[in-house]
C-alpha cells in the first residue's frame, strides 16, 4: 500500500534522511521507532508532503506521491495525527472535527462514530478546544484524522506526555482500529504497549531503517534494543 524507497530529506543545510526505506501492506500496523532526532518525524513530513524529499521514491497504491502538495496527498487517503496535536484552539470540539472531515461514499467514519469511540468528545462537543485537557486534545486530533476517512493513518507520538489512563484509552482506540482493518503507521516510545498492536517494527537510526522485525523478534534481542533504543 505504502512504499518508501531510498528516501532522502533534510532542512536547509542539514541532511536528516539518508536513503530510508520501508513498506506497509494494507491492514498492517507498522512502527517507526528509534531515539530522538533520528528522522522519524521528518519521514512522516516527507510522506505527507510537508517536507520536500530530496531523493528516493514514495508510492501509495502504486502511485508516486513524493513532492505532491499536502492537500493532494491527504485526498488520496493518507491521514496524520501530528506530533503536538495542532488542533484549532479557537474552534469548538465539533468545529475541529468537521473542519477537515471528508465524507466518502460508504465511508467508515462520521461524527457519531468518532463520538462513540471517544465519548468525552461528545460531552464536550460545544466547548472551545482550548478548554480540553491534553489527553482530550489528543483524542480530538485522532478523531479529526479519522473523519478524513484515511485509508492509511499515521500517528506521530500520539501518547506522549499523557496520563496513564488517557494513554490506555488511546491504545484501546488503536486496537479497535486495527481490528476494523485500518492500516496504521505508529511512532511511539512505548514498546510494551506496541508489542500487542504492531505487526512489524522499523528501527530508524541516523536517517535509515537499520532493522525491521516483529515485536517478538525485538523482545528476544536485548542487545539490539539496547543499542538502538537505549532500553
Ligand atoms: N524544522 C526543522 N528545521 C531544522 N532541523 C530540523 C527541523 N525539524 C527537525 N529537525 C532536525 O532533524 C533531525 C531529525 O528530527 P526528527 O524530528 O525527524 O526526528 P525524530 O526521530 O522524529 O525525533 P523526535 O522523537 O525527537 O521527534 C533532528 O536533528 C532535528 O533537530
TrEMBL record:
This protein's record includes keyword Membrane: no
Family according to the record: Belongs to the ABC transporter superfamily.
GO terms for biological process, alphabetical: L-amino acid transport
Database matches in SMART domains: AAA (SM00382)
Keywords: Amino-acid transport, ATP-binding, Nucleotide-binding, Transport
Organism, as annotated: Phreatobacter stygius
Cross-referenced CDD domains: ABC_TM1139_LivF_branched (cd03224)
Keyword Transport appears in the UniProt entry: yes
A Pfam entry, by short name: ABC_tran
Designated name of the protein: ABC transporter ATP-binding protein
Cited InterPro entries: AAA+_ATPase (IPR003593), ABC_transporter-like_ATP-bd (IPR003439), ABC_transporter-like_CS (IPR017871), BCAA_Transport_ATP-bd_LivF (IPR052156), P-loop_NTPase (IPR027417)
Residue ranges constituting the ABC transporter domain according to the UniProt record: 2-231
GO terms assigned for molecular function: ATP binding; ATP hydrolysis activity; branched-chain amino acid transmembrane transporter activity
Amino acid at each position: 500500500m505504502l512504499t518508501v524507497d531510498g528516501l532522502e530529506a533534510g532542512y536547509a543545510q542539514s541532511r536528516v534522511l539518508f536513503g530510508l526505506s520501508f513498506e506497509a501492506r494494507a491492514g498492517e500496523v507498522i512502527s517507526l521507532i528509534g531515539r530522538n532526532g533520528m528522522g522519524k518525524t521528518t519521514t512522516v513530513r516527507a510522506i505527507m508532503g510537508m517536507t520536500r524529499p530530496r531523493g528516493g521514491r514514495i508510492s501509495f497504491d502504486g502511485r508516486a506521491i513524493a513532492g505532491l502538495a499536502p492537500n493532494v496527498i491527504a485526498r488520496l487517503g493518507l491521514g496524520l495525527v501530528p506530533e503536538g496535536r495542532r488542533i484549532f484552539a479557537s474552534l469548538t470540539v465539533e468545529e475541529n472535527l468537521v473542519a477537515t472531515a471528508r465524507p466518502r461514499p460508504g465511508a467508515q467514519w462520521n461524527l457519531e462514530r468518532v463520538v462513540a469511540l471517544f465519548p468525552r468528545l461528545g460531552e464536550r462537543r460545544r466547548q472551545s478546544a482550548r478548554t480540553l485537557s491534553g489527553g482530550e486534545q489528543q483524542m480530538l486530533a485522532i478523531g479529526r484524522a479519522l473523519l478524513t476517512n484515511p485509508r492509511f493513518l499515521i500517528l506521530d507520538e500520539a501518547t506522549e506526555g499523557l496520563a496513564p489512563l488517557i494513554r490506555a484509552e488511546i491504545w484501546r482506540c488503536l486496537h479497535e482500529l486495527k481490528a476494523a482493518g485500518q492500516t496504521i503507521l505508529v511512532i511511539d516510545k512505548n514498546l510494551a504497549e506496541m508489542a500487542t498492536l504492531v505487526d512489524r517494527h522499523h528501527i530508524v537510526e541516523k536517517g535509515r531503517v537499520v532493522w525491521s522485525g516483529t515485536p517478538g523478534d525485538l523482545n528476544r534481542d536485548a542487545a539490539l534494543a539496547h543499542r538502538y533504543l537505549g532500553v
